[in-house]
Amino acid sequence: xxxxxxxxxxxLPGIVIALFSIGYLSLIPKIQTFTGMGSTPLTNHFVxxxxxxxxxxxxxxxxxxGLRKRAAFLKxxxxxxxxxLKAAFDEKREVILSFVVLTIYVALMDAVGxxxxxILYLFAQILILTPTSKWKKTxxxxxxxxxxxxxxxxxIFRMKLNVLLPQGILKSFGL
Amino acid sequence: xxxxxxxxxxxxxxIFLIAVGVAVGIIFGSIPGLTATMAIVMFLPATYSMSASxxxxxxxxxxxxxISGGLISAILxxxxxxxxxVATCFDGKPMADKGEAGKALGTGVVFSFIGTLIGIxxxxxxxxxLCDFALKFQAYEYCALAIFSLSMVIALTGHDMPKGLISAVxxxxxxxxxxxxIDSKPRFTFGLxxxxxxxxxxxxxxxxxxxxEVMAYAESVRKDQGFTIESNAKIKGAGFxxxxxxxxxxxxxxxxxxxxxxxxxxGIGGGVSCMISYTVxxxxxxxxxxYGTGIMDGVVASESANNATxxxxxxxxxxxxxxxxxxxxxxxxxxxxxxxxxxxxIYEKNGAVVYAIFFAMIVSAIFMMLFMLLGMRxxxxxxxxxxxxxxPIVLVLCGIGAIGNANMVFDTxxxxxxxxxxxxxxxxxxxxxxxxxxxxxxPTFETNLRRVSQLASSDPFYHHxxxxxxxxxxxxxxxxxxRSNLKEAKRAEAEELAAEAAASAAAKTx
Lengths: 175, 510
Known about the structure:
The complex is a heterodimer of chains A (about 180) and B (about 500).
Chain A: H1 2-27, H2 46-75, H3 85-91, H4 93-112, H5 114-128, H6 135-160
Helix pairs in contact in A: 1-2, 4-5, 5-6
Chain B: H1 2-9, H2 12-30, H3 36-43, H4 52-77, H5 88-97, H6 101-135, H7 139-156, H8 161-174, E1 178-179, E2 186-187, H9 201-219, H10 242-247, H11 249-264, H12 270-284, H13 296-320, H14 326-337, H15 346-374, H16 376-381, H17 387-406, H18 410-427, H19 433-455, H20 465-509
Helix pairs in contact in B: 1-15, 2-3, 2-4, 2-15, 3-4, 3-14, 4-5, 4-6, 4-13, 4-14, 4-15, 5-6, 5-13, 6-11, 6-13, 6-15, 7-8, 7-12, 7-19, 7-20, 8-19, 9-17, 9-18, 11-12, 11-13, 12-13, 17-18
């Protein structure tokens, strides 16, 4: 099992990075170049092409290395286990939920406002990072923590330090 | 002029402003996402009504406090408060995990102070000489310096070279987004005006370090563990013995000199200096295998280098009007607000202000050490805050820092994107640290490579001895690093095979 995951650590990232670098390289011809006076012999395509090409080579290196490890693993009589998506999701439940609430938080912050979204985010994130057995004792402190932090940060950073935190619905109250 | 400068700083109001500046700077530096640059930006309007000496002294205090404060969150939370503290995490956090948080903080504070003083001493004594040297750096030299610094990545990658290189190249590749250098044509902006300036280093750092820290904790929620990290609360003096401190002095001096040298070169700030000094310290150490496991040497190298960078970065700023990094760019604005024109004539036109800056830096360094040593117990107390509460609050502050960077909510989307990328990289065992080096050095390399391409026909490379020396040094670094990495890879493979054989033998016995 250990070796199984080891070669997958090379093959999967290698494929993702190779696809990313191909996508990146395909965008380079669309970049406008400057050919007027003062232009450089190396255009603004050169360095992106250099990095993109280098990344593709490294990704292929990773894939080949992973495939070699896989072949060696099979030769030793190893058995490749099937990937269980449901089990993986369950194992990483808190991580996935954390990314989901964080994405919702930043996506709605502009429209709804910093204060309400921060209260909701802090409440949700604190609960996610707390074992479910302790939720009964945690939900009220989490809510209070969310409200205090959101209001305090808004007051300090928006009102006193002029950081443009989104007002959202508070705009209608003139805050 | 010297006395005039001293008198200006020794005024009670100025000393009070310096103390406030240092305290605020430390707080900004310690909170991930809030940097010394942000503290200077926010307090710049507050200095408008002050005299030039008072205003600039306060900005200097914010700068020194901000750079120094980064070590607190780097050690206690494994999240660098500022880019300058990235390498402090490598040994600072393992020390805290071993119950030596006080020792790590004490080491960081004392050697930050020493690094700052070495930087100031070089700033004062060697300014004219070093300025002449920095003036010799042109496109060829910068290009070679970027290549040399990128070659250091190979030394940082350990036994898995392709993954380390992927990380560095990915960083350099991300830095190509935004307006291209020299011709300012948009690249990879997807029509979004928010992308014209490319990705901000600060936003990248928040995504890489802060979000991944929260996710790492989220993974362990169901495991049987407490919410607090145990730390050794019994601290005497600076947290380490005199003997231990004296043993670190050569390391601190070498690291400070590296910090000053890199600080002088525009565009390469504390973020790179701490990484390079850490690598140099590791490679020249008698026990390189202990680096990253929680030893003083790593913290000393990083902290003395990043604070010495302050003195180095001030040299081209004062003598040439060229800012070394984002902080000194803000300070340049501060000097201009107070009608101080940096450049070769600054000593003649504003000599008193220049000396006031030197004295303000020394006073700020003293305040920084006092505040941080006296507040050490308070900073260690941060560890006792339940992490399920602390980490989301830190993440909200990071979000505020990302928004405040350019006053754009868009940067929080980028922050989450980098956070996801960082998490996937960690899961794939791709190191994230080389990415920072690639991200910082990529644009320097590209700008100067393109300039070199213009100059090559009329000004061949062999007319540039510094370029030649740096390129030879690069070749040597690559050869030695590759050899060392291959040896390490073989050793790791042998250890793994031995462990597997032992495990299978144990299974058969059962």
